[in-house]
Each structure stands twice: as structure tokens, then as C-alpha cells.
Amino acid sequence: MMILQVQDVTKRFGGLQALTDVTFDLPEGQILGLIGPNGAGKTTLFNVINGVYAPNKGKIIFRGEDITGKPSYEVARRGMARAHQVVRPLHDLTVRENVMVGACFGREGHSLTQAAHKADAALAQVGLAARADQPSGLLNVAQKKRLELARALAARPFLLLLDEVLAGLNPTEISEMVDTILKIRDEGITILMIEHVMQAVMSISDRIIVLDYGQLIAAGKPEEVAANPQVIEAYLGDPEMTARLMGE
Amino acid sequence: MKSWRQPGFWLPLVIVFLWGGIVLVLRQDTVRETAFTVLMFMALASSLNILLGYTGYVSFGHIVFFGLGGYTGFYLISEQGWPLLPAALAGGALSGVIALLVGLAVLRLRGAYFALATIGINEAARAFVSNFGPFGGATGLFVNFSAYEKYGGAGQALWTTFTFLWITTLAVLVVSYLVKHSRFGLGLQAIREDEDAAMVMGVQAPRAKTITYVISAFFPGIIGTLYFFKNGNVEPGDAFQLHMSIEMLVMVMLGGMGTVLGPMVGATAYQGLRGYLLTSPIFKDLHLAVAGLILLLIILFVPAGAVGWVRGRLPALRRVLE
User: Fold this and answer.
1) In this structure, is residue B14 part of a structural domain?
2) Is B280 part of a structural domain of the chain?
3) What is the SS3 assignment for B11?
4) Residues of B with CB below 8 A from A105's CB?
5) Which of A9, A148, B214, B266 could form an SS bridge with A22, CB 3.0 to 4.6 Å?
6) B181: chain A residues, CB-CB within 8 Å
7) Residue B44 gets which letter from DSSP?
8) Per-domain residue ranges of chain A
């Protein structure tokens, strides 16, 4: 069953064509990697999928329901959660209270008391349980990324959008985060992730799609995508030149 | 969360309850007048804090709800012969309805644009009331002295008004605490920190902001009715004073925005200072300039306000100083 279907999505900002006829399907239970050079439109695609922007053309179908143009809070309530690229926790609240926002207003809409339990479970899942009572402003970057993930998880989503959760982490932190993401997938949550850390995204994605200048230029298994000349060109420029450099 | 077991819930209520009770027992007019002013600003600042402190939306023209609600309540008392209590509630209800209509339009704006729009609303309301026949136009309305008869004469009416204000202040503090500690309030605080992220987490921001705006407008409408009834007249210049809006902001910021106790502390401290400045030969014409300076210094150096600062320094007191 397809949990998410993106059909011919086009988004323009004034004269800038951010997305052109993007179409792809995401089957339930998979990890789909979304890669592409800076400015390719990856975050814009996320924003269109979860209702921050309405597309100029095209449809977003989530669990069989057309959610095109619905505001982001309506999309969230239907079971789509998102961890942001730029982490902005609610500084004055504790780590637990931050995660409770996800549980209270997510798919299951818990009361405060229930949300506190859900929050603790989500914090344990991402390895932040020890910091539950600290003000969230005191966390370091890696911990804030985990907090962002816990907030999304506490909403008990069907689909999780991860926007560069590995960026800015050191190699140890990356491998810990990758383990966490795989565990989340194993619980049955479908994941769509934007990532620049190639080794990680290649190793954990079931499939990968590549965006360049707002267009989908490749889709397939990680090894197919990595060998695709168009993808290499998008990232590195001239494929022949790249092959020569790699050969040396 | 059992609110009634939390010291942070009781502390502000006990203070206001005892203070008002003592004033009623002492039964001295001067003590009552001082308490009336301070309680009024406590309740106004706390109402503003429900919007400003919890959602982070700066309403620069919040006094418009005091003015419009006050005018409505006063009109019902002086022209229609309503008793004080239903008239005050009607004044609050009208302010709430106006906030609902205005909110649907201006709560789409963020930051400075919202603040500017609220100033515009205050000025528009003043202009409208100044030309509105039933409200007496520019000269305003007066209460017929016989209206006080129902309350056992003018002197007794002032005590009744004070008692109503005292209860209103307690009600504002209860609502402020309950909003802060509810699921709804958690959503508001998420909006304050990052509205887009809050919506992505499922917070229905447009609806939540509108409800909050209505709550924070309702109480000033009641307080306005009580205040003008006590004064015996209402006119546009008194009802829509922009500087009172700014003083409310100073009180909230001084005590600590986003806390229940903060606006109480801020209102008391500011009124104390204002009393000193108005009677001081050097500063008597400068009290607003001093208020502006205080606001600037707080925002620069203690943005969390007095209560927020103590909470930050002494985490052990967090459950007491809400």
C-alpha cells in the first residue's frame, strides 16, 4: 500500500520555479532517501508535502486521502510528523514539555498527563531520557536534533519526514542516529528523509530519489542511483571529468 | 495536573484575597482607592499577559477593550438602568466579540505588523465613539446619581464596585494559571516560540490565537465598566488612552511575561513607582518617559522580568513562582 503519493507537484515563488512536475510514490514501511545538491528544492518539497505551502499544481495523497492545500496542522493530525533542519526547541520549556507538544497535538491528541508518558517513551527511544527535566535551551546540537526527532515521534505518526537530521553530527553521533532511525522504521513508521551525509543515506534507504533544479532526475535503489551519470553530473559536474578524477 | 495542589496556583490568589479582604475590613476610602488602582492594573496586565506572555503577540492597543467594554457597560447602567453585575459582564462580552471579529482579521499578521494594527484599532475605536450619538459623542456619558441608590448610596456603591473588581482580579489569575497549565496553553507556548513549527506539530494556531485574544479582551471589558461606574462618567479621552496600553506592557515585562505572578508584581511595582514620580517635583511631568526607559532597560538586560529572573536563578522556586 502506498502511504504517500506525490503527483505532478509544481511550486513557483514569483519567477522562481522551485519544483517542476515532481511525481513519486512511497510504499508503507520503507525508508525513502531524498537527495540533491543545495538549492534543488528538497526542503520546499517537504513544505509542500506537509502543508506549509500549497502547490501551484499537482496533488499530495496521504493514506488514500487528498491532502493538497490543507494547512500543516491538519496534515499533522492525520499522522505526518516532521523533524526540522533548523532545530528550534521551545527554550523556556523543559525537554519533556517540548516533546509533549508533539504528543498533545499529533495524531492521537493526548491529554497533558498521557502526553507526559508518551514524551518519556519517545525520549527514551532517542536516548534523551536523562535530560527530560532540563530546559531545552541547554542542549547541545546533537541533543537538539534528538529532541526534534522525539517531538516528531511522540506524535505517533504514520509517516515521518526527516530534514537533515545527521547534518552537523560527528561520526559517532551519526552512527547512533542511524541506529535510532532504523529502529523507528522497524516499528512500522515510514520515513522520508533529506540527507547530505551520503554514506549514511545510501546505507539505510530502501530507495532513493534525486532532485536537481526542482526536477526529479533519478529514482531507484541506492546503488542504481549512485551509478547514474545524471546524478553524478548534478553533484559533481561533468561525469567524464569525475570519472577521470576518481580514476587518479 | 491537579491545580489546586500546586503552591504556584495558590500563592497569587492568597495574596490578592488577603489584600482585598483587609481593605474591606479596614473600610477606609483612601486605602480602597489605592487598592482599586493597583488591583485594576494587576487584572489588566494579567489579561494582556494571557495574550502577550503565552502566545508572544504584542497588543499595543489592548486598552481598546477596556474602553469599548467600559463604554458598553456604562451605557447599559446609565441609559438602560441595568444593574452593575450584568452590565459589566455585557461589557466583557462585547469586548470579547470585538476581539473575535478583529482577531480573525489581524491575527494573520505577525510581529511588528500585528502590534501596529492593534494601535490602529484603538485609534479607530476612539474616533468612532467620539462620533457615536448613543454613547454621548465627544462629551461622553454621566451616571445619574440616583443609579447609586440601588446600592445603598454612592459611598456603598464604591465598596460594591471594589468587591466586584477584587473578584474579577481573582478570576483573571485563576484563568491565567489554568490557561498556562493546560494542553491549550502548551500549544500557545509552542506558538510563542515558533509558530510555523507549532503548526507542523499539529497546533491549530489560527483558532488558538483567536480564542486567546477573546479571553484577554473579555476581562478588560468588565474592568472598564467597573472603573467608569466608580468614576461616574466616561468620555473618549479617558477610555482609549494609548499610554495606558503601554503602561500595561511595561507592567507585564517588568514582572515577567509568561508567568502568572509576573503581571501582579509588575503592576504593584509600577504603580508604586508611578505614585512616587507623580508626587516628586522633579519627575512629575516625566513619568511616562521613565516608564519608557524602564521598558527599554528590561528588554535589554532582564527580558524575562523579575519573576522570570528569579525562576531562572532558583529552579527550586519554580513550582511556587508560576
Assistant:
1) yes
2) no
3) helix
4) 187, 190, 198, 201-204
5) A9
6) 112
7) H
8) 2-79+158-247, 86-156
Cell numbers found for residue A227: 551509478
Q: Whole-model pTM? A: 0.91
A230: which DSSP letter?
H
ipTM of model: 0.88
Closest CA–CA distance from residue B198 to any residue of chain A (Å) = 8
Q: Compare CB distances from A112 to B183, B193, B201 and report the shortest one's residue.
A: B183
Tens digit of pLDDT at every position of chain B (322 positions):
567 788 889 999 999 999 999 999 999 999 999 999 999 999 999 999 999 999 999 999 999 999 999 999 999 999 999 999 999 999 999 999 999 999 998 998 888 899 999 999 999 999 999 999 999 999 999 988 787 888 888 889 999 999 999 999 999 999 999 999 999 999 999 999 889 999 999 999 999 999 999 999 999 999 999 999 999 999 999 999 988 999 999 999 999 999 999 999 999 999 998 888 888 888 878 888 888 888 889 889 998 899 988 988 887 888 888 8
Looking at chain B, which runs of residues are DSSP E strands?
141-142, 233-234
- In the Cβ-directed half-sphere of A225, how many Cα atoms lie within 13 Å? 26
The answer to whether residue B1 neighbours chain A at the CB level (below 8 Å) is yes
Domain count, chain B: 1
With an 8 Å Cβ cutoff, the interface of chain A facing chain B consists of 50, 52, 71-73, 76-77, 81-82, 84, 88-93, 97, 100-102, 104-107, 109, 111-113, 115, 151, 155
**Is the Cβ of B178 closer than 8 Å to some Cβ of chain A?**
no
CA distance B68 to B50: 19
Domain hosting B198: range is 3-242
